[in-house]
Amino acid sequence: MGLYNDTVMDHFMNPRNVGDLENPDGTGTYGSPVCGDMMQIQIKVKDDVITDAKFKTFGCGSAIASSSMATSMIIGKSIDEALAISNKQIIEELGGLPAVKVHCSVLADHAIKSAIYDYAQKNGKTYEGLAGFDPDADEDDHEHIIEE
Ligand code: FES
Predict the structure, then answer these.
(1) What is the domain extent for residue 79?
(2) What's residue 33's pLDDT?
(3) Which of 5, 63, 94, 98 has its CA 20 to 30 Å from the CA of residue 144?
(4) What ipTM goes with this model?
């Protein structure tokens, strides 16, 4: 029954890494142009490795599950590895999302990149994975859309 698999339901009902970080090294916020839902992701970085991440999502269950999974995926990863994570991979780790909910995973993908962008700006760093990234751009370029 239902639209959502057990992994999605688990991350929705028991989301990991909810809340705020004390003195975050980077904060990214993104609002979906599709539905208006909002997500904030904060990161702690040491020696170019993401040591902690937290999120707050004002959005649907799929957005909560996506941000829970996304923060779990980036903790312990290098910035470059985290930047390489696509919304498609978040969906794969969740075991799939319904097609109409794909944009919810884009929120998590974009919020991670925004948090890293903020960190990079504050620390004068550049990363290849951020080339061309604009935290304020609307996600209307379709590059993240995947076909079911
Ligand atoms: Fe918009 Fe899920 S419906 S983030």
Answers:
(1) 6-121
(2) 86
(3) 5
(4) 0.97
